[in-house]
Amino acid sequence: MSKASIQRNYRNAHNFDEDFFCDNNSSKNLENDKISGDDQFLGRYLSDKKITILFLVIIFSLSILFARVFQLQILKGTYYSQLAEINRTREKPIISARGLIYDKNHKPLVKNLPIFDALIIPRDLSLDKEKRNLQIEGISNIISVSVADVSSILAEKPKNYKYFITIREDIVYEEAIQLKIAAQNMNGLYIETRNKREYLNEVEFSHILGYLGKITEEELNNRGNNDDYLLNDYLGKTGLELRYEEVLRGKYGLERVEVDAIG
After folding, report:
1. What is the pLDDT of residue 65?
2. pTM for the full model?
């Protein structure tokens, strides 16, 4: 077995040389270990084919993601923006007082008497069936109307109906104040003032003045712009009340209320 001589020189405080011998086979193995570094790698590596497949999967996933973002932000951005605004705010109509009718001497022939109604906006109630039933039960207890009657009235309109539906009419002032306080903690329930018509010379001018009546489904549908009239509105049926309906009724206002996630 041949020997190879290796000499190391140490330069420090004590200078000395060191000689040692190793066989040729050992030196060759050491040299091969330095050259073939792959044999010394611990773990696994991916082949070029697998890397290419992984890269294509990532590109495909990102393409789908960017396409979806483009659809939501660019193509349907306006739609979702309006939808978010609708969910963020609630619109509540402000009912105007009906105009008065005077004679030639400016003497009033009619007057308005304030009365109170209990109203519900179906869209303000929860869409969850169990929560909605609990809300209806709470409203029923507050306004002293049976759960069956409240549910029956609400069933006539879709759950997302955004206008007032009358649940109870002609509530006296003292009770209306108590109900209005209780309604503050009940989503969807409103106690609103309505003007009731009183005719001062009913016997003499009843055939001329006419009278008011609650709007029917047919009358509501026949109106050119149904948003101008609500399901619980009263309008002129005959006489001057009918002839000057558009003038006497006036224009309703609109109050926008910002709501939180639970309405």
Report:
1. 92
2. 0.58
